[in-house]
Amino acid sequence: MELKRILARDTKTANERAIALYGRNVLVISNHTVGGQTELVVAVDIDESSAQTTNPVLAAVAAAANEAATPPKARVFAQVMSEIDRPQAPPPQEAPTQRASVLAAAQSFDMQLSQGASEVQERDKLRSNELMDLIRDELATLRREFNLSQKTSGWQSGLNLAPEVQALMDSFTQAGMPASLRTLLLDTVKDMRDERDALAAVRSQLEQALQREPAAVPRQGVHVLAGPSGSGKSLMVAKLARLAAKRDGADHVAIVSYKDMRVGAWSQIQLLAEHIGVDAFCVQDAAELPALFERLKRRHLILIDTPGSQTLERVAEIKNAFPQAQAHMVMAADASSATLNRAIRAAGVRWDSLMVTKLDESVQPWPLVEFLCDNRLALNAAGDGNQLGDLRRELEIRSLVEMAVAQLARTASAASVEPIKALAQQPSMTPLPPAPSPSARLYAAVAPRGMRGAYN
Fold this sequence. Notes:
- By secondary structure, the chain is an alpha/beta fold.
- Among the domains are: 2-72 and 100-115, no CATH class; 221-394, P-loop containing nucleotide triphosphate hydrolases (Rossmann fold, 3-Layer(aba) Sandwich).
- It has helices at residues 11-22, 56-69, 77-85, 98-157, 163-174, 179-189, 195-210, 233-248, 265-276, 289-295, 311-321, 337-344, 366-374, 397-411, 417-424, and strands spanning 2-8, 27-34, 37-44, 221-226, 253-258, 279-283, 301-305, 326-332, 353-357, 379-383, 391-392.
- The strands form two sheets. An eight-stranded mixed beta sheet has the order 6-5-7-4-8-9-10-11, with helices on both faces. Strands 1-3-2 form a three-stranded antiparallel beta sheet.
- The two termini are 63 Å apart.
């Protein structure tokens, strides 16, 4: 026997289609509604010479059908009469029939389908709630920006700024700089009369505010990469795995996809791992983590990719299974202030570093600059492009500041471009480690997307 699935607009149409396809003796296993249509699961005969099936439901259906099709044995009349005259013994307790086994298996199958559907609905509900919370945070951030701009507009209009400095302040607004950071920088340059001096002061203040000890790129141990959907976690995992494989060998590196139920997520990880030459594992249950870590204990580096939803729960589950695991926040360079603050405010998660992705796509990195001014989170590796080799092993503060200042050059007048270009060639006002010279494309009249510099 073989199970067949029939979809129709209602039960009557499904039954008629089943009879037309498999005859009037077709055996109906289950009947329920799926996506507004009626789904009918029926059992039909298959070739007995085919390979024996190992499915208990199909085996039970086949046995029941064979039992029903076996004809009764012929008996003589005298034997029948003797059985009638013989005293009747109480009937023994009948064992469950094959049809009862089929029904029980079908009910179990329906329960599994219902349980899977309920899990999907619960996951979608949680994802919807997270999106709604993120929208509320974005709206609250916009309200704060608007209120702060209203409160500072009167103060700014009474400062009597020089025309060159006023043009610089206008470029701050056009570049998408948050109101709080704009106000702090305005307080620094309000008494200046030269745009060159104002830009130098802005650059110096940002570099001093952003200074911090960089975090080491993952080389060994268990590292969890977490962040919102679309931040580039999977690609960052692949870039780090490729770097470690070139250094220590592919046999010492492993990639783990943890509870990522998105369509195609596991396939993407498999393709990336196959391209790099490292092993990839898929884990859908927290109970499997201890056994997996025990199996991979000889690997130098284990990189875990997490889904964009329920981030905090997933990180907590991994840390419960392996307390020494390090958690790294992954954010796109153009992430909004609400997204950045929502992640850093997460209770119960201690982030070891921040990894920045999509540097080549960022056109407004000011929310990230403001976030780093307010938080001392260490900077780790940065991704610049979609190629596996586009990895900056350390995101330098000077490079990030230059990327932000480049946005001012795009919005300011043509006369403002030369001072910025000359300023970038001057040494910083605070001691900084050596950095590669900025690309000449940074100062073009029509600059490319983001700032693309040399990789370490």
